[in-house]
Amino acid sequence: MSDAERVWPSGLTVSEAEEFHRHIIEGTRIFFFISCIAHLMAYIYTPWLK
Predict the structure, then answer these.
(1) Which residues lie closer than 8 Å to 3 by C-beta, 6 or more apart?
(2) Whole-angstrom Cα distance, residue 12 to residue 24?
(3) Can you tell me the distance from the alpha carbon of 2 to that of 21, in angstroms, rounded to the nearest whole number?
(4) HSE (CB half, 13 Å, CA atoms) of 40?
(5) How far apart are CA 1 and CA 49, in angstroms?
(6) Of the N and C termini of the chain, which has fewer Cβ atoms inside 10 Å?
(7) pLDDT of residue 5
(8) Which of helix, strand or coil describes residue 50?
(9) Which tens digits make up the pLDDT trace of 1-50?
């Protein structure tokens, strides 16, 4: 019952794997943007870092 379109080990098709990868990359970019804002705010509002 091996499907030729499925890729080992995930069992996803190539198009499904590419879509999943896009979501992972988008989530990583959003996390990076939020973490940059949080670090900037910590630097601005913390007096002992200046």
Answers:
(1) none
(2) 15
(3) 23
(4) 6
(5) 61
(6) N
(7) 76
(8) coil
(9) 467 777 778 888 888 999 999 999 999 999 999 999 999 998 888 877 55
Distances (CA, A) of 17 to 3, 39, 48: 15, 33, 46
Q: Count how many Cα atoms sit within 13 Å of the Cα of residue 41 in the half-sphere of its side chain.
A: 6
CA-wise closest residue to 5 among 16, 41, 46, 43: 16
Q: What is the pLDDT of residue 1?
A: 47
Residue 12: phi, psi to the nearest 5? -90, 155
Q: What is the pTM of this model?
A: 0.70
Q: Measured between alpha carbons, how far is 34 from 38 in angstroms, rounded to an integer?
A: 6
CA diameter of the chain: 64
